[in-house]
Structure formats: structure tokens, C-alpha cells
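Is this the right way to post C-alpha cells for a design question? Let me know if I should format differently. Anyway, here goes:
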């Protein structure tokens, strides 16, 4: 799974969601959210939580192109 950080950041912007908001919504610690947004590949369950919180799919954020 390869994170497309630009897609993730764009989805967060579209939802007006900050790192803190995403951490709170997903239950993922803020420091881990920050690492993921900076490009660290997440665990599968964290990727799923993030996608759900942003109203999208894992493939849309972590898929190719």
C-alpha cells in the first residue's frame, strides 16, 4: 500500500479536517496521524479508519496514480 499524501491532504482539506480532527474522529493518536500524513504507510486498520472518516475508500487514497 503506497500512500498518496497529496490525495490524503486534499481529502482532509475538502472535509475541513485538521490533523487533530482526524485523530479525534478515527481514534488514532495525533502523532501517528501526523506520521501518516507525512508519508508513513499506516497499518491496514488505520487506513480503513482514515478512509471512512474522510468519506472515501482506501483505494482512492492509497491506490496507484
Amino acid at each position: 500500500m503506497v500512500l498518496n499524501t497529496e490525495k490524503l491532504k486534499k481529502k482532509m482539506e475538502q472535509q475541513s479536517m485538521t490533523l487533530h480532527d482526524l485523530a479525534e474522529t478515527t481514534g488514532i493518536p495525533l502523532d501517528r496521524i501526523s506520521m501518516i500524513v507525512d508519508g508513513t504507510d499506516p497499518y491496514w486498520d488505520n487506513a480503513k479508519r482514515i478512509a471512512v472518516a474522510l468519506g472515501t475508500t482506501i483505494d482512492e487514497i492509497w491506490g496507484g496514480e
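Format looks fine. Someone answered above. Worth noting: Residues 5-14 form the longest helix (10 residues). The two ends are 12 Å apart (CA to CA).
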